[in-house]
Amino acid sequence: MRKICIRVPVKMGERSRCVLLDHEILDPGYRIFSSDGYLYIPLIKEPSSIILDQLPECAEVKEQEFEKLNKKPTLEDLLGFVPQYEIVGDIAITESDPENENTVAEALLDVHPSIKTVIASVSPVEGEYRIRKYRIIKGRPTTETIHKEHGCRYFLDITKAYFTPRLSTERDRILSQISPGDVVVDMFAGIGPYSILIAKKSGAKKVVAIDKNPDAVVYLQRNVDLNRLYNVEVVESDAYDAADQYKNSADHVIMNLPHSAHEFLEPALRISKEGGIVHFYDIIHEDEMFEGSLRKIETACKRSNKSIQIRDHRIVRSYAPHQYNICIEFQVHGTEKPSA
Questions:
Q1: Domain SAM-dependent methyltransferase TRM5/TYW2-type, which positions (predicted)?
Q2: 129: part of which helix (H) or strand (E)?
């Protein structure tokens, strides 16, 4: 059957597949195949410009013949709809829906044999440590699991530390910018999905992983050990308080705390060495796009007597109706440039 698809070089296939999975437009009913050095990935619909921006520049939208898979019943086959859920390790997380949640849980366990526990979120991300409350619906009565991503393993309890697999593609994108010998400071490391990946895959000289949540730090240290890493320094501290200890040290500073990272821009500027790159995350309304975030950065630069050069700005994902999780990357220089 002819289907719309994405064509990318085979070596860029996994990254592209993850992007398409994150945006839920990869068609699982048809077989991905390679030909003449290219991978052809079938899609449910035409990709939006936002999705195309996250794919490799050489990605092309094509039409191609695909082989239909003989597959098990899908969630839509069993339920008549596709529920919202994400999988962390062997735990499936759904939204709280007392009327349907038992049926949904049974379908998830049937469709995904690797899932051992189904839970429902019963609160938004909240509090100083950005965690949610959950209720176990079916399966093994635990909220601890081991999640595998990009060849790394992460032991965590989702009730004690924030983690989302939806940033897998973004974490891989940041990894691609780190060079062997770099020093990286992850200001809000959590259980370590940025820090562990970078330490294991980039050849970084040192990764400083900071977090103030004591439970997250316990899992972070366990994940350093689990992945047999010796170039990670785990720091339990508020990033603001730790900044002076790492002043002018970092080639890259990661600020993945979107709702409040702007409060830590001045410490980030102190941590960055001359020419270092800051990866700043924010949540913005579609009416503002990047302007509001850029104003926050400019204000911090003036207070710190620093100048910057914007290297990139991009939408990472849709966060809520009319709101986006964005990343702005800028290079730090020593003193503010004089006005013209």
A1: 85-334
A2: none
d(CA 80, CA 112): 17
pTM score of the predicted model: 0.82
As to burial, measured by CB atoms within 10 angstroms (0-12 exposed, 13-18 middle, 19+ buried), residue 213 is buried
Q: What is the pLDDT of residues 219-244, one digit of tens each?
A: 999 999 999 999 999 999 999 999 99
Q: Which residues pair with 328 in a beta bridge?
A: 280, 313
Residues in Cβ contact with 264 at an 8 Å cutoff, skipping those fewer than 6 apart: 187, 239, 240, 255, 257
Helix (H) or strand (E) holding 136: strand 134-139
pLDDT score for 53: 87
Please, what are the domains in the chain?
2-65 (3.30.70.2580), 75-142 (3.30.300.110), 166-333 (3.40.50.150)
Is 272 exposed, middle or buried (CB count within 10 Å of its CB: 0-12, 13-18, 19+)? Answer: buried
DSSP type of residue 43: B
Give the rounded distance of the alpha carbon of 101 from its chain centre: 27
Residue 141 has a pLDDT of 95
Of 170, 164, 14, 171, give the one whose Cα is nearest residue 85: 164
Separation in Å, CA 135 to CA 127, 128, 129: 18, 21, 19
Q: Which two tokens stand for residue 261?
A: 């990272």
3-state secondary structure of 284: strand
Burial class of residue 319 in the structure, from the number of CB atoms within 10 Å of its CB (0-12 exposed, 13-18 middle, 19+ buried): middle
Residues 6+ apart with CB under 8 A from 100: 83
What pLDDT shows up at residue 23?
85
> Is 113:81 a contact under the CB 8 Å cutoff?
no
